[in-house]
What we know:
Elements: E1 7-10, E2 13-16, E3 20-28, E4 34-42, E5 47-54, E6 60-67, E7 72-76, E8 79-81, H1 88-100, E9 102-103, E10 106-113, E11 123-130, E12 133-134, H2 141-144, E13 146-152, H3 154-162, H4 169-180
Parallel strand pairs: 5-11
Antiparallel strand pairs: 1-3, 2-3, 3-4, 5-8, 6-7, 6-13, 9-12, 10-11
Amino acid sequence: MNNNIVKKLEEILVAENPWLKFYYDRVRFPNGAEGRYNRIVEGNNNRGIIILPLNSQKELGLVKIYRYPIQLWQWEFPRGFGEDNLIAVDNARRELEEEMDMDAEKFDVLGSTFPNSGLLASEVDIVVAYNVKSIQKMGDMEKGMIKEIKFFNINQIKEMICNGIIKDGFTIAAYTLANLKGFI
């Protein structure tokens, strides 16, 4: 089976910064026609991380974070870019500390997701963090972008998703996978 149905004729880097590269490649489609294809590569390793922080009361932790692209505050599970030299659990531990000032007793990798396979070349690991607790470090809380950290029971999270309070696709995907696999 040929995985390269759309053949890359020329890779054209349009813009880049430390967090992403934007390409507008020249391609040949299966019918022989030539065209262009947008592609965004996130980070250096194309891996991200999302964490479902579970406290000792079996509540899930969310951060209320400002998302500049949509100009809104969003309730989300903590997430971020993966670092090249770290495995999923180590990336989860690092991101949990950065966004929630917490650590966990145990981590389980549930799987991964492609957040937008039509545009993004990245894959995001989904990790449950058990018995999270504050490490009393309090960094810069993502440069003031995080307004609040709060724990909710499973039914509250479900209602927030159903009522459109949680709209973040990463959070919904992570919650769904954890629920289907019986972790929450």
